[in-house]
Amino acid sequence: RAKEAGRNRCHFFRQDINDQAVRRLEMEAALREALVLQESGGGAPFELHYQPQVSLDPRRLYRVEALVRWTHPRWGAVSPAEFVPLAEECGLIDRLDSWVLETAVAQLARWREAGVPVPGVAVNVSAARFARGDLPDHVRAVLATNGIPANDLTLEITERLMMSEEIDVHDGLDALHALGVTLSIDDFGTGYSSLGYLKRFPVTELKIDRSFVKELDIDAANRPLVRAIIQIGEALGLTVVAEGVERETQHRMLEAEGCAVGQGYRFARPMAAGALADWLQGEGRHWTGHQPGACISI
Ligand code: C2E
Ligand code: MG
Ligand code: MG
Ligand code: MG
């Protein structure tokens, strides 16, 4: 009996692995197809949503982060947590990131044309996009095409990429820094513990990973960690952004610890471009002008 049960279980596992492999292959093919469609202008399976980052004191819109969304004709919305890693593995992420960069900067220009005072936009840059080497040129061209100052663009780069031994991060980061874009370290605290790169590289911002913020107001052990990260930022003159702020209690604690900027459902969820413009005019928010440099109190 036990043997039989074992065999059955084994069978189940194999079936499961097989299903996963099939789904993966299907998804890879669909992703490839979606990207071709998007690049050729024949359709728009990808869309960007924008999530506000809010300076905490005084409370103002700091910038928005562009987050990619994919809608499949049969599967519906697929989570980036699923398709971004897959796009990385099958060598498609650099093309997707290029599209995201172009689209986000063009959107910023469109908001400004329409008088919507969005101070800046951040995009996520994968290691593969970075490694291609043409990122600084591409960034320069995209900014020029849209008439956006480099200052108003932020590139979010993971800590893991900073530590890469295969990719020459140094020259790339220097070239991007020379352009004047802001370099931000995404998911800070989840990569490697060596902090030497913080002074070697021209980064100006740290994003505290959501995993540290998640239980900030529940598990007492998180507070000293978050405090330490904020102090590292302070000591090195880096702006600290906390991601995944969901509750008022987390918000208050971050504020008390001197965190400069927050991002999370507490303030706003990621939204389509049109919805963001509406949100910015919603209750309790007011614009102090329509020119560049104008700000939105929220
Ligand atoms: P990330 O860059 O760390 O982005 C933050 C993620 O946290 C987003 O998930 C956002 O929707 C989510 N989030 C924000 N506030 C809250 C909150 O209060 N609570 C919770 N539970 N979640 C919150 P999303 O959009 O699913 O993206 C997941 C990840 O996928 C991103 O993490 C980023 O690593 C990657 N990604 C998204 N867009 C792109 C892209 O255009 N290019 C690349 N290379 N990666 C991307
Ligand atoms: Mg990010
Ligand atoms: Mg992040
Ligand atoms: Mg994160």
UniProtKB/TrEMBL annotation:
Domain annotation EAL: ranges: 24-284
Highest taxon in the source lineage: Bacteria
Sections of the chain in a coiled coil: none
Protein name: Diguanylate cyclase (GGDEF)-like protein
Organism expressing this protein natively: Azospirillum picis
Segment of the intact protein contained: 452 to 749 of 749
